[in-house]
Design brief:
Elements (H helix, E strand, L loop, with lengths): L1 H13 L6 H16 L2 H4 L12 H18 L9 H8 L4
Helix pairs in contact: 1-2, 1-4, 2-4, 4-5
Length: 93
C-alpha cells in the first residue's frame, strides 16, 4: 500500500533531517503525489465526521497520521490529538 510506503520513506528520511518544515514538505509532496491522484477513484468523499468510513479509508488515514508523527518527531504513546498533529505538520486529512 502506497500510504504505508510513504510512512516508511519518511521514517528513513527522519534519520537524515531534523523534525520540522523540511520533513513536512517532503510528506506533503509524497502524499499529494501518491495518494491525491487516486483519491476520487478509491472511494466516495466524506463531507462530515458522521459519514460512514470503510476499512480502506481508515488504513489510509492511519498511515497519514503516522507520517505526521514522523514529521514532528512524536511517538504514538504521546497521545497528541490527530487534528493537532495534521495541522502542525500541514498534512491533509
Amino acid at each position: 500500500m502506497a500510504a504505508k510506503k510513504i510512512t516508511g520513506t519518511m521514517g528513513r528520511l527522519a534519520c537524515r533531517f531534523p523534525p520540522g518544515p523540511v520533513l513536512s514538505s517532503f510528506a506533503r509532496a509524497f502524499i499529494s503525489g501518491k495518494l491525491g491522484y487516486a483519491a476520487g477513484v478509491t472511494g466516495s468523499p466524506r463531507y462530515a465526521d458522521d459519514d460512514p468510513t470503510t476499512g480502506h479509508h481508515t488504513s489510509i488515514q492511519t498511515a497519514i497520521n503516522d507520517t505526521a508523527r514522523v514529521c514532528l518527531g512524536v511517538k504514538r504513546r504521546a497521545k497528541i490529538p490527530v487534528s493537532s498533529l495534521l495541522r502542525k505538520a500541514g498534512l491533509p486529512s
